[in-house]
Amino acid sequence: MRVYCFHGRGCRFRPQIWHPRAGSAAAVGTMVPEVLLLAALLYAAAQLLRFVFADADLTLLWAAAFGKQPERVLKGRVVWITGASSGIGEELAYQLADVGARLVLSARREGELERVRRACLERSRLREEDVVVLPLDLLDRASHREITAAVLRHFGQIDVLVNNGGRSQRSLFLDSDVDVYKALMELNFLGTVSITKEVLPHMIRRGTGTVTTVSSIVGIAGAPLSTGYSASKHALQGFFNSLRSELSDNPGITISTICPGPVQSNIVQNAFTEELGKSVSAQADQQHKMTTPRCARLILVGVANRVWEMWIGQQPFLGYFYVWQYAPTLAWRLTNILGRKRVRNFKAGLDADSAYFTKAKAS
Ligand SMILES: NC(=O)c1ccc[n+]([C@@H]2O[C@H](COP(=O)([O-])OP(=O)(O)OC[C@H]3O[C@@H](n4cnc5c(N)ncnc54)[C@H](OP(=O)(O)O)[C@@H]3O)[C@@H](O)[C@H]2O)c1
Q1: What is the sign, positive or negative, of the torsion defined by CA atoms of 243, 249, 253, 259?
Q2: Which atom of ligand 1 is found nearest the CA of 262?
Q3: How many domains does the chain divide into?
Q4: pLDDT (tens digit, 9 = 90+) per residue, 48-67?
Q5: Distance from Cα 87 to the centre of ligand 1, integer Å
Q6: 333 belongs to a structural domain
Q7: Which of 42, 201, 226, 284 has the highest CB neighbour number within 10 Å of its CB?
Q8: Tell me, what's the pLDDT at 16?
Q9: Is residue 263 in contact with ligand 1, taking CB distance under 6 Å?
Q10: Which residues are catalytic?
Q11: Structure pTM?
Protein backbone atom coordinates (compact mmCIF):
# COMPACT_ATOMS: atom_id res chain seq x y z
CA MET A 1 0.00 0.00 0.00
CA ARG A 2 1.34 3.43 -0.87
CA VAL A 3 0.77 6.11 1.75
CA TYR A 4 2.23 9.60 1.85
CA CYS A 5 4.10 10.99 4.81
CA PHE A 6 3.17 14.49 5.95
CA HIS A 7 6.66 15.26 7.17
CA GLY A 8 7.93 16.30 3.73
CA ARG A 9 10.29 14.83 1.21
CA GLY A 10 13.37 14.85 3.42
CA CYS A 11 11.79 12.95 6.27
CA ARG A 12 14.22 10.32 7.49
CA PHE A 13 11.50 8.33 9.22
CA ARG A 14 9.42 7.76 6.13
CA PRO A 15 10.75 4.34 5.14
CA GLN A 16 10.35 3.06 8.69
CA ILE A 17 6.84 4.42 9.10
CA TRP A 18 5.29 3.23 5.92
CA HIS A 19 7.50 0.24 5.23
CA PRO A 20 8.22 -1.18 8.63
CA ARG A 21 9.78 -4.37 7.30
CA ALA A 22 12.47 -2.29 5.56
CA GLY A 23 13.70 -0.67 8.79
CA SER A 24 15.51 -1.99 11.81
CA ALA A 25 13.88 -2.26 15.25
CA ALA A 26 16.14 0.57 16.46
CA ALA A 27 14.88 2.90 13.76
CA VAL A 28 11.29 2.11 14.68
CA GLY A 29 12.17 2.96 18.27
CA THR A 30 13.34 6.44 17.30
CA MET A 31 10.05 7.06 15.51
CA VAL A 32 7.94 6.54 18.61
CA PRO A 33 8.48 9.97 20.22
CA GLU A 34 7.71 11.71 16.97
CA VAL A 35 4.51 9.74 16.46
CA LEU A 36 3.47 10.43 20.02
CA LEU A 37 4.20 14.13 19.60
CA LEU A 38 2.13 14.23 16.44
CA ALA A 39 -0.73 12.46 18.20
CA ALA A 40 -0.54 14.90 21.11
CA LEU A 41 -0.55 17.88 18.74
CA LEU A 42 -3.53 16.48 16.85
CA TYR A 43 -5.35 15.88 20.13
CA ALA A 44 -4.59 19.43 21.32
CA ALA A 45 -5.76 20.87 17.99
CA ALA A 46 -8.98 18.83 18.19
CA GLN A 47 -9.62 20.03 21.76
CA LEU A 48 -8.95 23.64 20.78
CA LEU A 49 -11.37 23.33 17.88
CA ARG A 50 -13.91 21.77 20.22
CA PHE A 51 -13.47 24.65 22.65
CA VAL A 52 -13.89 27.27 19.92
CA PHE A 53 -17.31 25.84 19.13
CA ALA A 54 -18.26 24.90 22.70
CA ASP A 55 -21.20 26.57 24.41
CA ALA A 56 -20.75 25.10 27.87
CA ASP A 57 -17.94 23.98 30.12
CA LEU A 58 -16.32 20.74 29.06
CA THR A 59 -17.73 18.73 31.98
CA LEU A 60 -21.26 19.68 31.00
CA LEU A 61 -20.63 18.98 27.32
CA TRP A 62 -19.17 15.61 28.27
CA ALA A 63 -22.34 14.87 30.24
CA ALA A 64 -24.43 15.96 27.24
CA ALA A 65 -22.56 13.56 24.96
CA PHE A 66 -21.97 10.56 27.20
CA GLY A 67 -23.94 11.12 30.41
CA LYS A 68 -27.47 10.28 31.48
CA GLN A 69 -30.20 11.71 29.32
CA PRO A 70 -32.79 13.98 31.02
CA GLU A 71 -35.55 11.98 29.31
CA ARG A 72 -34.58 8.96 31.39
CA VAL A 73 -33.72 10.62 34.70
CA LEU A 74 -36.40 13.29 35.02
CA LYS A 75 -39.51 11.46 33.80
CA GLY A 76 -42.12 11.45 36.56
CA ARG A 77 -40.03 13.64 38.87
CA VAL A 78 -41.65 16.59 40.63
CA VAL A 79 -39.84 19.76 39.60
CA TRP A 80 -40.66 23.15 41.12
CA ILE A 81 -39.54 26.09 38.96
CA THR A 82 -39.54 29.65 40.26
CA GLY A 83 -39.64 32.38 37.61
CA ALA A 84 -41.57 30.05 35.30
CA SER A 85 -43.65 32.80 33.70
CA SER A 86 -41.01 33.90 31.19
CA GLY A 87 -37.55 33.40 29.70
CA ILE A 88 -35.37 30.54 30.93
CA GLY A 89 -37.93 29.31 33.50
CA GLU A 90 -40.69 29.15 30.89
CA GLU A 91 -38.49 27.19 28.47
CA LEU A 92 -37.40 24.85 31.27
CA ALA A 93 -41.07 24.15 31.94
CA TYR A 94 -41.64 23.19 28.28
CA GLN A 95 -38.63 20.91 28.09
CA LEU A 96 -39.43 19.31 31.43
CA ALA A 97 -43.00 18.69 30.23
CA ASP A 98 -41.53 17.06 27.12
CA VAL A 99 -39.52 14.63 29.25
CA GLY A 100 -42.55 13.82 31.40
CA ALA A 101 -41.63 15.62 34.63
CA ARG A 102 -44.47 16.76 36.87
CA LEU A 103 -44.35 20.50 37.36
CA VAL A 104 -45.00 23.29 39.81
CA LEU A 105 -44.87 26.66 38.06
CA SER A 106 -44.27 29.71 40.23
CA ALA A 107 -43.78 33.44 39.70
CA ARG A 108 -45.87 36.53 40.46
CA ARG A 109 -47.97 36.78 37.27
CA GLU A 110 -50.61 34.08 37.52
CA GLY A 111 -52.01 34.75 34.04
CA GLU A 112 -48.62 34.14 32.44
CA LEU A 113 -48.14 30.99 34.49
CA GLU A 114 -51.53 29.69 33.28
CA ARG A 115 -50.43 30.35 29.69
CA VAL A 116 -47.22 28.34 30.30
CA ARG A 117 -49.21 25.58 31.99
CA ARG A 118 -51.61 25.25 29.03
CA ALA A 119 -48.67 25.09 26.62
CA CYS A 120 -47.02 22.39 28.76
CA LEU A 121 -50.18 20.29 28.70
CA GLU A 122 -50.70 20.76 24.96
CA ARG A 123 -47.21 19.64 24.00
CA SER A 124 -46.90 16.65 26.36
CA ARG A 125 -48.76 13.63 27.67
CA LEU A 126 -49.00 15.12 31.14
CA ARG A 127 -52.39 15.09 32.84
CA GLU A 128 -54.10 18.22 34.21
CA GLU A 129 -53.05 17.34 37.75
CA ASP A 130 -49.41 16.94 36.72
CA VAL A 131 -48.85 20.66 36.13
CA VAL A 132 -49.72 23.04 38.92
CA VAL A 133 -49.62 26.83 39.02
CA LEU A 134 -48.69 28.31 42.39
CA PRO A 135 -48.20 32.10 42.38
CA LEU A 136 -45.20 33.13 44.43
CA ASP A 137 -43.49 36.39 45.25
CA LEU A 138 -39.89 35.69 46.22
CA LEU A 139 -39.91 38.93 48.21
CA ASP A 140 -42.81 37.75 50.39
CA ARG A 141 -40.76 35.40 52.54
CA ALA A 142 -43.55 34.94 55.07
CA SER A 143 -45.57 33.10 52.41
CA HIS A 144 -42.90 30.59 51.43
CA ARG A 145 -43.68 27.99 54.09
CA GLU A 146 -47.35 27.78 53.14
CA ILE A 147 -46.59 27.62 49.41
CA THR A 148 -44.11 24.80 49.98
CA ALA A 149 -46.72 22.99 52.07
CA ALA A 150 -49.20 23.40 49.20
CA VAL A 151 -46.76 21.76 46.78
CA LEU A 152 -46.25 18.86 49.18
CA ARG A 153 -50.00 18.48 49.73
CA HIS A 154 -50.52 18.16 46.00
CA PHE A 155 -47.56 15.98 44.96
CA GLY A 156 -46.32 14.55 48.27
CA GLN A 157 -42.72 15.19 47.22
CA ILE A 158 -40.34 17.66 45.57
CA ASP A 159 -37.51 16.06 43.63
CA VAL A 160 -35.97 19.15 42.07
CA LEU A 161 -36.20 22.79 43.06
CA VAL A 162 -35.08 25.17 40.31
CA ASN A 163 -34.34 28.54 41.88
CA ASN A 164 -34.64 30.60 38.73
CA GLY A 165 -36.73 33.71 39.52
CA GLY A 166 -34.74 36.91 39.63
CA ARG A 167 -34.00 40.29 38.11
CA SER A 168 -30.92 41.96 36.71
CA GLN A 169 -29.64 45.54 36.85
CA ARG A 170 -28.68 48.25 34.38
CA SER A 171 -27.35 51.24 36.28
CA LEU A 172 -24.14 52.88 37.40
CA PHE A 173 -23.33 52.54 41.07
CA LEU A 174 -22.82 56.27 41.62
CA ASP A 175 -26.26 57.04 40.19
CA SER A 176 -28.17 54.25 41.95
CA ASP A 177 -30.19 54.37 45.16
CA VAL A 178 -29.09 51.98 47.88
CA ASP A 179 -32.71 50.78 47.89
CA VAL A 180 -32.02 49.18 44.50
CA TYR A 181 -29.19 47.17 46.08
CA LYS A 182 -31.46 46.13 48.92
CA ALA A 183 -34.14 45.00 46.45
CA LEU A 184 -31.62 43.00 44.41
CA MET A 185 -30.32 41.20 47.48
CA GLU A 186 -33.82 40.64 48.86
CA LEU A 187 -35.04 39.15 45.60
CA ASN A 188 -32.12 37.28 44.07
CA PHE A 189 -30.39 36.19 47.25
CA LEU A 190 -32.72 36.15 50.27
CA GLY A 191 -35.81 35.08 48.30
CA THR A 192 -33.87 32.11 46.94
CA VAL A 193 -32.39 31.25 50.33
CA SER A 194 -35.87 31.41 51.86
CA ILE A 195 -37.47 28.98 49.40
CA THR A 196 -34.49 26.65 49.71
CA LYS A 197 -34.82 26.72 53.50
CA GLU A 198 -38.42 25.50 53.22
CA VAL A 199 -37.76 22.77 50.65
CA LEU A 200 -34.47 21.31 51.84
CA PRO A 201 -35.68 19.70 55.12
CA HIS A 202 -38.23 17.73 53.09
CA MET A 203 -35.48 16.51 50.71
CA ILE A 204 -33.21 15.58 53.59
CA ARG A 205 -36.02 13.60 55.24
CA ARG A 206 -36.47 11.66 52.00
CA GLY A 207 -32.70 11.37 51.53
CA THR A 208 -32.93 12.59 47.96
CA GLY A 209 -33.39 15.79 46.00
CA THR A 210 -31.74 18.46 43.92
CA VAL A 211 -31.64 22.19 44.54
CA THR A 212 -30.34 23.94 41.44
CA THR A 213 -30.00 27.70 41.28
CA VAL A 214 -29.67 29.96 38.29
CA SER A 215 -26.76 32.21 39.12
CA SER A 216 -24.95 33.94 36.25
CA ILE A 217 -21.64 34.57 34.57
CA VAL A 218 -21.54 37.61 36.85
CA GLY A 219 -21.85 35.27 39.84
CA ILE A 220 -18.24 34.40 39.00
CA ALA A 221 -16.99 37.45 37.15
CA GLY A 222 -17.87 41.11 37.52
CA ALA A 223 -19.49 43.53 35.08
CA PRO A 224 -20.12 47.27 35.15
CA LEU A 225 -23.76 48.42 35.33
CA SER A 226 -24.48 45.27 37.34
CA THR A 227 -22.70 45.89 40.63
CA GLY A 228 -25.74 44.96 42.73
CA TYR A 229 -26.87 42.14 40.46
CA SER A 230 -23.37 40.69 40.38
CA ALA A 231 -23.15 40.98 44.18
CA SER A 232 -26.44 39.12 44.59
CA LYS A 233 -25.26 36.31 42.29
CA HIS A 234 -21.86 36.14 44.01
CA ALA A 235 -23.79 35.81 47.25
CA LEU A 236 -25.72 32.88 45.78
CA GLN A 237 -22.52 31.21 44.61
CA GLY A 238 -20.92 31.57 48.04
CA PHE A 239 -24.06 30.40 49.78
CA PHE A 240 -24.63 27.29 47.68
CA ASN A 241 -20.95 26.31 47.48
CA SER A 242 -20.87 26.40 51.29
CA LEU A 243 -24.19 24.62 51.64
CA ARG A 244 -23.02 21.83 49.33
CA SER A 245 -20.09 21.00 51.56
CA GLU A 246 -22.24 21.42 54.69
CA LEU A 247 -24.48 18.68 53.28
CA SER A 248 -21.71 16.36 52.19
CA ASP A 249 -22.98 13.73 54.64
CA ASN A 250 -26.18 13.59 52.57
CA PRO A 251 -25.09 11.90 49.36
CA GLY A 252 -28.61 11.88 47.95
CA ILE A 253 -28.82 15.67 47.97
CA THR A 254 -27.38 17.64 45.06
CA ILE A 255 -26.72 21.35 45.31
CA SER A 256 -25.82 22.90 41.98
CA THR A 257 -25.40 26.33 40.49
CA ILE A 258 -26.00 27.32 36.90
CA CYS A 259 -23.97 30.17 35.45
CA PRO A 260 -25.32 31.29 32.10
CA GLY A 261 -23.79 33.98 29.94
CA PRO A 262 -26.24 36.07 27.91
CA VAL A 263 -29.42 34.15 27.03
CA GLN A 264 -32.45 35.36 25.09
CA SER A 265 -35.18 36.35 27.57
CA ASN A 266 -36.87 39.41 29.07
CA ILE A 267 -34.09 39.94 31.59
CA VAL A 268 -32.90 43.30 30.29
CA GLN A 269 -36.34 44.87 29.99
CA ASN A 270 -37.15 43.67 33.54
CA ALA A 271 -33.87 44.90 35.04
CA PHE A 272 -33.61 47.28 37.96
CA THR A 273 -32.28 50.73 37.11
CA GLU A 274 -31.08 53.66 39.27
CA GLU A 275 -34.41 53.94 41.07
CA LEU A 276 -37.00 51.40 42.15
CA GLY A 277 -39.90 51.51 39.72
CA LYS A 278 -37.94 53.08 36.85
CA SER A 279 -37.62 50.82 33.81
CA VAL A 280 -34.81 50.28 31.30
CA SER A 281 -35.00 52.66 28.35
CA ALA A 282 -32.64 51.14 25.72
CA GLN A 283 -33.95 48.32 23.54
CA ALA A 284 -32.04 45.10 24.04
CA ASP A 285 -30.73 43.38 20.95
CA GLN A 286 -30.80 39.62 21.55
CA GLN A 287 -29.08 38.40 18.41
CA HIS A 288 -25.74 37.73 20.07
CA LYS A 289 -27.28 35.74 22.93
CA MET A 290 -27.67 31.98 23.33
CA THR A 291 -31.13 30.70 22.46
CA THR A 292 -33.35 29.89 25.43
CA PRO A 293 -34.01 26.28 24.32
CA ARG A 294 -30.28 25.53 24.12
CA CYS A 295 -29.69 26.99 27.57
CA ALA A 296 -32.61 25.02 29.04
CA ARG A 297 -31.42 21.78 27.44
CA LEU A 298 -27.95 22.18 28.94
CA ILE A 299 -29.49 22.89 32.35
CA LEU A 300 -31.54 19.68 32.16
CA VAL A 301 -28.42 17.71 31.21
CA GLY A 302 -26.61 19.22 34.21
CA VAL A 303 -29.48 18.36 36.54
CA ALA A 304 -29.79 14.80 35.20
CA ASN A 305 -26.05 14.25 35.71
CA ARG A 306 -25.79 16.04 39.05
CA VAL A 307 -23.23 18.55 37.75
CA TRP A 308 -22.36 20.90 40.62
CA GLU A 309 -21.54 24.01 38.62
CA MET A 310 -22.55 24.64 35.03
CA TRP A 311 -20.98 27.28 32.82
CA ILE A 312 -23.28 27.94 29.89
CA GLY A 313 -22.36 30.45 27.22
CA GLN A 314 -21.35 30.83 23.64
CA GLN A 315 -17.91 32.16 22.79
CA PRO A 316 -16.43 34.55 23.70
CA PHE A 317 -18.32 34.27 27.02
CA LEU A 318 -17.27 30.69 27.65
CA GLY A 319 -13.64 31.68 27.21
CA TYR A 320 -14.25 34.52 29.62
CA PHE A 321 -15.36 32.01 32.31
CA TYR A 322 -12.12 30.09 31.86
CA VAL A 323 -9.93 33.19 31.88
CA TRP A 324 -11.69 34.45 34.99
CA GLN A 325 -11.19 31.12 36.72
CA TYR A 326 -7.62 30.38 35.69
CA ALA A 327 -6.04 33.78 34.97
CA PRO A 328 -7.85 36.32 37.13
CA THR A 329 -5.36 39.16 36.67
CA LEU A 330 -5.78 38.93 32.91
CA ALA A 331 -9.55 38.72 33.41
CA TRP A 332 -9.59 41.92 35.46
CA ARG A 333 -7.66 43.75 32.76
CA LEU A 334 -9.98 42.42 30.04
CA THR A 335 -13.03 43.37 32.09
CA ASN A 336 -11.70 46.91 32.41
CA ILE A 337 -11.22 47.23 28.66
CA LEU A 338 -14.61 45.76 27.74
CA GLY A 339 -16.30 47.41 30.70
CA ARG A 340 -15.20 50.85 29.54
CA LYS A 341 -17.06 50.24 26.29
CA ARG A 342 -20.09 48.92 28.10
CA VAL A 343 -20.28 52.06 30.24
CA ARG A 344 -19.79 54.30 27.19
CA ASN A 345 -22.59 52.51 25.33
CA PHE A 346 -24.84 52.87 28.33
CA LYS A 347 -24.11 56.57 28.79
CA ALA A 348 -24.83 57.11 25.09
CA GLY A 349 -28.29 55.57 25.60
CA LEU A 350 -27.42 52.40 23.67
CA ASP A 351 -28.00 48.80 24.59
CA ALA A 352 -24.89 48.18 26.69
CA ASP A 353 -24.29 44.59 25.59
CA SER A 354 -25.20 44.18 21.96
CA ALA A 355 -22.96 47.09 20.99
CA TYR A 356 -20.02 44.79 21.73
CA PHE A 357 -20.98 42.56 18.86
CA THR A 358 -23.07 44.50 16.41
CA LYS A 359 -23.30 48.02 15.17
CA ALA A 360 -25.02 49.65 18.09
CA LYS A 361 -28.57 50.79 17.54
CA ALA A 362 -29.86 53.85 19.32
CA SER A 363 -32.96 53.22 21.41
N1 LIG B 1 -31.11 35.85 30.38
C2 LIG B 1 -29.84 35.96 30.74
O3 LIG B 1 -29.01 36.47 29.97
C4 LIG B 1 -29.39 35.45 32.07
C5 LIG B 1 -28.03 35.26 32.26
C6 LIG B 1 -27.61 34.79 33.49
C7 LIG B 1 -28.50 34.51 34.48
N8 LIG B 1 -29.83 34.72 34.28
C9 LIG B 1 -30.76 34.42 35.37
O10 LIG B 1 -31.77 33.60 34.87
C11 LIG B 1 -32.91 33.71 35.70
C12 LIG B 1 -34.15 33.85 34.82
O13 LIG B 1 -34.09 35.08 34.14
P14 LIG B 1 -34.54 35.25 32.62
O15 LIG B 1 -33.35 35.56 31.85
O16 LIG B 1 -35.40 34.14 32.19
O17 LIG B 1 -35.36 36.63 32.74
P18 LIG B 1 -36.93 36.92 32.66
O19 LIG B 1 -37.47 36.51 31.34
O20 LIG B 1 -37.07 38.34 33.07
O21 LIG B 1 -37.57 35.98 33.78
C22 LIG B 1 -37.45 36.28 35.14
C23 LIG B 1 -38.46 35.47 35.91
O24 LIG B 1 -38.32 35.80 37.31
C25 LIG B 1 -39.60 36.04 37.84
N26 LIG B 1 -39.57 36.97 38.96
C27 LIG B 1 -39.13 38.26 38.96
N28 LIG B 1 -39.36 38.81 40.16
C29 LIG B 1 -39.95 37.87 40.94
C30 LIG B 1 -40.45 37.83 42.27
N31 LIG B 1 -40.40 38.91 43.06
N32 LIG B 1 -40.99 36.71 42.73
C33 LIG B 1 -41.06 35.60 41.94
N34 LIG B 1 -40.62 35.58 40.68
C35 LIG B 1 -40.07 36.69 40.17
C36 LIG B 1 -40.40 36.60 36.67
O37 LIG B 1 -41.80 36.34 36.84
P38 LIG B 1 -42.89 37.41 37.34
O39 LIG B 1 -42.54 38.74 36.76
O40 LIG B 1 -44.17 36.84 36.83
O41 LIG B 1 -42.81 37.36 38.83
C42 LIG B 1 -39.88 35.77 35.53
O43 LIG B 1 -40.61 34.56 35.43
C44 LIG B 1 -32.64 34.90 36.61
O45 LIG B 1 -32.26 34.43 37.88
C46 LIG B 1 -31.48 35.60 35.95
O47 LIG B 1 -30.71 36.31 36.87
C48 LIG B 1 -30.29 35.17 33.09
Answers
A1: positive
A2: 3
A3: 2
A4: 888 888 999 999 999 999 99
A5: 7
A6: no
A7: 226
A8: 45
A9: yes
A10: 229
A11: 0.89
